[in-house]
Design a protein that fits this description.
The protein is built from 4 helices and 22 strands. Helix 3 links the parallel strand 20 and strand 21.
């Protein structure tokens, strides 16, 4: 099982490596990084509308005329005359005492029954027996293994059953009735309705003869010419590039800066020319520049200063003609000290100098 698992894992790893298109005949002790061509861009010029065309409107006021109109000055209404209702006396029957239902209890009745239970299960197993007339002095030579089966054991248990549960029987008791007198409406009350007509008058008023209108003047649109960058050629995976394995891990460069400055000295530029320029010239790999400071000074200032120093190296290489897309700059400030010299720790200048370092490494640019 272990061999099968190892073989399956080996096939999986081998398949994964070949699926990535690694070199077929790699040299021992060499490392390879996958190189990808970056997207290529171009600048295009086009004219865009920065202010739309629109219409400017001028209002022509409305004109009026005088008209007569008959208007309602008092609404029509109604007058109501109330006529009272008339009554008569009647007798009404009602229940003086409500009927009810009494209950009689019928007790429960019982019976007898029994049930058989298995009190010990059926068992079986092997038992050793010594054979009689064993010819051997050692009795263990005459031991026989016998498979023995024992039947289950049962017991009858009597119990009482409920034949009919207790219940009740209804005994009705009749209600008692009587009557009372009341007056009921013989003729309902009513309201006689009398109409009172509306009143009108004639008025004069000024109304709109010609509504307000507008005249339109078109203001033309304004345009500007802009230049923008667009994708000209899509990049992609090209090949695996051979590099020394030690270049894949951060390598410290003897690059020094003036105190609190990101300006490269002539000595530092010489280090870059001798170390990084040949790597970028002789291969298609990408590199990452990592700058660090010691713990002295403000943390946020050190982070900003380290980023400026890493950018300074990249900018210098861009000035040498190398594409900025092949380089990454990252400042770490005092977050990756190589020794104990953190904030508040008394250290020598030599110990602080070990933390003020600039590193580079080859990175896989996919």
């Amino acid at each position: 099982m272990r061999n099968l698992l190892f073989l399956t894992l080996s096939l999986f790893i081998s398949g994964s490596i070949f699926a990535q298109g690694l070199p077929d005949n790699p040299d021992p002790g060499k490392c390879y990084v996958k190189c990808i061509t970056k997207d290529e861009f171009k600048e295009v010029t086009e004219t865009i509308e920065v202010y739309p065309a629109y219409n400017k409107l001028e209002v022509v006021p409305a004109t009026y005329k005088t008209v007569e109109e008959r208007v309602l000055v008092k609404e029509a209404t109604k007058k109501f005359v109330y006529v009272p209702a008339t009554y008569e006396t009647v007798e009404v029957s009602y229940v003086k005492k409500a009927g009810r239902t009494d209950l009689t209890v019928v007790p429960a009745s019982f019976g007898k029954d029994s049930r058989t239970f298995e009190v010990y299960p059926k068992t079986s197993g092997w038992e050793y027996k010594v054979l009689e007339d064993c010819p051997s002095v050692n009795k263990e030579d005459c031991v026989a293994a016998c498979f023995v089966e024992y039947p289950a054991q049962y017991r009858d248990v009597p119990f009482t059953t409920l034949t009919k549960d207790a219940n009740t029987e209804d005994v009705p008791v009749a209600e008692q009735t009587t009557t009372y007198k009341k007056q009921v409406i013989k003729t309902p009350a009513r309201v006689d309705e009398i109409e009172i007509p509306a009143e009108y008058a004639t008025i004069t008023k000024r109304v709109v003869d010609q509504p307000a209108t507008t005249t339109s003047v078109t203001i033309p649109a304004k345009s500007e010419t802009v230049t923008r960058t667009v994708l000209d050629k899509k990049g992609g995976i090209t090949t695996w590039e051979e590099v020394d394995c030690e270049l894949l891990t951060p390598t410290v460069l003897p690059i020094f800066y003036e105190l609190g400055s990101a300006r490269l000295t002539s000595a530092s530029k010489k280090v870059i020319d001798e170390t990084l320029v040949p790597i970028l010239t002789d291969s298609n790999v990408n590199i990452e520049i990592m700058a660090h400071t010691d713990s002295r000074g403000n943390d946020s200032f050190n982070m900003s200063l380290s980023q400026q120093r890493a950018n300074a190296v990249v900018n210098y290489l861009v000035g040498k003609g190398f594409s900025r897309s092949r380089m990454a700059a990252k400042g770490f400030g005092e977050t990756r000290l190589t020794n104990r010299c953190s904030n508040g720790v008394d250290c020598s200048e030599a110990e602080h100098r070990k933390n003020r370092r600039t590193e580079f490494r080859v990175i896989n640019n996919n």
